[in-house]
Amino acid sequence: MTKETEECLRKKKNAFNEQFKNAVAAIASGLSVGNSVENAVVSGEKELRLIYDSKERIIREFQIMIRQLKLHVSMEKIFEDLALRVPEEDVRDFVTVFVTVKKSGGNLVAIIADTARQISEKQEVEREIEILLAAKKYEFKIMTMVPFLIIGYMSLSFPEFMKPLYGNIFGVGVMTICLGIYTVAYYMGLKIIKIEV
């Protein structure tokens, strides 16, 4: 998988997670005004259409859920199907919470509102981490160029200082070891900045 493909998939995943957060908030809003879960899903879809284009995945998923509702499929089964179609952690967690609460008879409105808040907080933390990682990646790129810039500058400005490093076997050996250490450090740095948020 190319870097561009990975980046494109990551952007799609982040976009859907943002959409799903808004979807859960819309369902929670519908429940808070006294709607049943089924009606909250229908009203949630209408709310989401005000924010997103009909081609967005969250709208398509809600349309599937509404079709299932018309076929009298239970809400638990509808959400479980959603979790199978969209293997995202936020979706899976929400469905697990929803199914558990429905079976145990807990306060559905409060728990879904709380789940929406938790998803929002988690995404906020992930965004902050991504910003920090982006800064560190930029620093890493600069730091990888510094040794070559120093050697280039010294070679052009003070060739007499560089002669002992490249003008005999001992100097070449030392610089080869330094290049090896640099290469190992470079690949270690690449692995460190590839942290998944």
UniProtKB/TrEMBL annotation:
Keywords on record: Cell membrane, Membrane, Transmembrane, Transmembrane helix
Superkingdom as given in the UniProt entry: Bacteria
Pfam annotation, one family: T2SSF
Topological relation to the membrane, as annotated: Multi-pass membrane protein
Subcellular location: Cell membrane
Cell wall biogenesis/degradation among keywords: no
Regions annotated as coiled coil: none
Residues annotated as domain Type II secretion system protein GspF: 55-154
Principal location class: membrane
Ranges annotated as spanning the membrane: 142-159, 165-188
PANTHER family, per the entry: INTEGRAL MEMBRANE PROTEIN-RELATED, PILUS ASSEMBLY PROTEIN
Protein's name in the database: Type II secretion system F family protein
Annotated source species: Aequitasia blattaphilus
Higher taxonomy: Bacteria, Bacillati, Bacillota, Clostridia, Lachnospirales
